[in-house]
Amino acid sequence: MVDAARHPNIDIRTFTEVERVDGFVGNFNILLREKSKYVIADRCNGCGECATACPIEVPNYFEMNLAPRKAAYVPMSQSVPLIYNIDMDACIHCYKCVDACGSLNAIDFSMEDKLVWEEIGAVVVATGFNHFDPSVMEEYGYGRFPNVITSMEMERLNNSAGPTHGNLIRPSDSTNPKQIAFINCVGSRDKRYNPGCSNFCCMYSIKNAVLLKQMYPDADITVYYMDIRTPSKGYEEFYDRARKMGIKFIQGRPGLITEDPETHNLFVSSEDIALGNVIEREYDMVMLNQAAVPQPDVDTMSSVLNVAQSPGGWFMEYHPKLRPMDSPTDGIFFAGACQGVKDIPASVAQGSAAASRAGRILHSDEWEIEPTVAYVWTERCVSADGKKCGLCFRSCPYGAIELEIGRPAHVITAKCHGCGGCVAECPHNAITQLHYTDAQILAQLHALLAEKPEEKILAFRCHWCSYGGADLAGTSHFEYSSNERGLRVMCSARMDPDFIFEAFRLGAGAVLYSGCHPQDCHYITGQLVGAARAERLEHLFGKLGMTAGRFRVEWISAAEGDKYARTLNEMQALLNSLSKEDLKNEILRLSPTMEQRAHKMRSLPEIVQAMEFSSNFELAMVGKVGEHESA
Amino acid sequence: MNPHNELPNRFSDKVRAMPGGENLDACYACGTCVSKCMIQQKVEAEFNPRRLLKMVMLDKQTEAFQDPTTWMCSRCDLCYPACPQQIHISELIHSVKQLAVEAGYSSSLDVVNVDEGLCSGCGICVMACPYEAPSLFEKGVNGSTDRFAMVDGTRCMGCGICVAACPAGAIARDGVSNQEITSQIKTISSNSAPSLAIFVCDWCLRAESDLSILESYPDPVNVIHIPCSGRIDPQMALLALGRGYDGVLVCGCKPGECHYVRGTMIGSCKMEMLGRMNGQMDITGQPVRFVQIGTQERGRIREEIDAMLNSMPLRKES
């Protein structure tokens, strides 16, 4: 940390919040709020005279509130930069610190927060994690029984720089504990609080147990666990070493801790899974290995940085396996536990990866983006005529569309990731997406429904999830209807209602509208745009009297090949259950409505070429051009 | 090949389709339910909900139907709020029990019996029972139809709440009949030390150290064990006062932790009413109290007894 502070190219801003992030990769403008420390940084030499003079003591957060600190303080003795700070919530304005500071004159009570705009090339988010508060779990009595402590409190009690100088004592009577229990998975792997595994706590409790055993060889140490997870190199060996040191490991999650009111000793009841019996053991001290949870202000950070959250509140990465350090927004990277709980080696690896990713941007004059970006057809955009529309603006998950009434919408190409949501949302067909133009998709659609369309199931699949699901169904040899005709777009947000209308106009038997599950969407909120539209369409088709199930909406992840196959088979079963006559009549009845609804798209100048292309394609493929038109 | 083609009508599938069974497969065998439950520690060493869940998952139907867990769970629901996988364990066990009853198995618990010679068919037991075990039926007696109560042996958990509620004394089971309990209430002759009758439910004192606290009090403090604090009959308390006790203390579980679902609520209401009636009749020298002791309140029983003994006025020499 000191090295970083001395580096000429590293500028450390502590006590500073990011309020706004504008711009795009390589050209971010960020607004920083440098909070007032009431100490002038250039003048403070970190002597600590102000803290000595300060008469106010408040709980020290860094010491897990086990020790006091003054209202004039540094968060911890190794703080970098070593600049004191006045806690205005605690300060009584006696100005003794000002006198103590003397001729340095570093304390300035009139200081105010400073707002600073900075130009930034890339952002690395490393906001870490927070601890689960175990006091909500009444069964463990944390907060009521003085000798039940959390692992972080243990960390301070055990630390030679901590409040007890490394002497581990019981909070109730300041004696050294002899019987010590560790309880794992407190608030993690627990659907009541955090369903996920907190990843490092198994190793963490073994580390603490080994450390205590080394310091107090006579101590009787027990670790209660559900499963011990030691998946990395050398971890299992460490666990083995702990067992050989005489640390007891009991498989069984304690359901209850009770306290002797006189001695404040604790009784831990758990089932020993190996014995199948409930055992109650007495301890001097119990340590709860609490879950890792996202920082409390993760929602604010999400909206400031415009990055989504995975289930559980961790920041969502671009790809969980291939790009875990990248955010979906170019130029914003993640390091460490803010993206998901991880231990120190994994955090270091991800941090280094994020730094090199960021370095690549800083050293580039040009930046490659996805080629499937959106493009506005300015003469069609009604915003240019002063009309209020803004559908494209609202559908964009990346804030890539600039909109000003009186001027056509404008796509910031560097920010666009190519989901196609704006393209499908635009009611005037004024936006197109390169490589997924309406004409290109229509050409595919016409080709797929060229022959016996009433027997076909047209499946719109999103590139990232349901296309993968269909792929998995194939590679896993899950049989599904051979009448399925798949059509790939980047996101369910791109599935334009016009395509659906056109498919039904051409007489498609059924249409599947499939995409990612909402939490999996590759384009942050693209699925939500798609889902809202799908709901509208379902409602509309219901009103038009279409047989329920001919238009079907399913969210299928890349891992759900079985679901894809099942969905298709169910749709085929529906088509089989309808009589051919009824289906044909229904298609004919709805055809004029569908034609009218798809009218705007059909009036696009490019559509003529699309039709020609598709006719030629049909000719080449089946040699029966135009048959469906007459049918 | 469709991975969703599963054999229909397996035992586990039947349970999965019943209340509580929906999260069956979530169980990762942490043992929290077993450590919360008091049946294994107090009554039956073979009682183990975790093992029963595993039996169901592995389709071991006969073992599950014969397992004491199926029959002894009283649905107190201490386990459900503690389960990290949110499995409604007691509901699931109840579903297994229903299947077992359908298959012709029967409960091995001591259940209550109705003496039809005494039963007046008033239906109070039907209202009092937390398990809907008693019901009324009509049958012809000497040419006229008459109503009687009958108890479903597969539902009754033997708490004795109905025994206390029955105004005719027509319901009883071995061990908790009125005679057996009242015979434990000794007559106090000496009046040097304050005497106290403590009716204590079998479940509220979790720790063995708490039970030894009870035994540590010398004779004018007498402990009478009842299966549930809902089994307390105000007449039993009055009888104790009549036999010379200076006060009566009834210990039950904390609401929400009662082994018999709502017995502690019923017991506390009865004792509250009795206290008020005594007050109206100016019987203030002999206090009647009801305490509810939670699973985590180790040692509280000593505080309560001491407070009671200290608060009691010394009896006048007569």
Notes on the protein architecture:
The complex is a heterodimer of chains A (631) and B (318). Chain A is of the alpha/beta class. Among the domains of chain A are: 164 residues, FAD/NAD(P)-binding domain (3-Layer(bba) Sandwich), CATH 3.50.50; 67 residues, Alpha-Beta Plaits (2-Layer Sandwich), CATH 3.30.70.20; 194 residues, no CATH class. In chain A, 31% of the residues lie in helices and 20% in strands. Chain A is built from 19 helices and 27 strands. Chain A has a 5-stranded parallel sheet with strand order 10-17-11-12-13. A 4-stranded parallel sheet of chain A has the order 25-24-26-27, sandwiched between helices. In chain A, strands 1-2-7 form a 3-stranded antiparallel sheet. In chain A, strand 1 and strand 2 form a beta hairpin. The radius of gyration of chain A is 32 Å and the shape is globular. The C terminus of chain A is likely disordered. With 318 residues, chain B is an alpha/beta fold. Chain B has 3 domains: 92 residues, no CATH class; 51 residues, no CATH class; 137 residues, Rossmann fold (3-Layer(aba) Sandwich), CATH 3.40.50. Helix content of chain B is 36%, strand content 14%. Chain B contains 15 helices and 8 strands. A 4-stranded parallel sheet of chain B has the order 6-5-7-8, with helices on both faces. In chain B, strands 1-4 form a two-stranded antiparallel ribbon. A two-stranded antiparallel sheet of chain B has the order 2-3. In chain B, helix 4 crosses helix 8. Chain B is globular and about 70 Å long. Chain B starts with 10 loop residues before the first helix and ends in a 7-residue tail after the last helix. In chain B, 44% of the residues are buried. The model of chain B has no long low-confidence stretch (mean pLDDT 89). At the A-B interface, strand 14, strand 15, strand 16 and helix 15 of A face helix 2 of B.
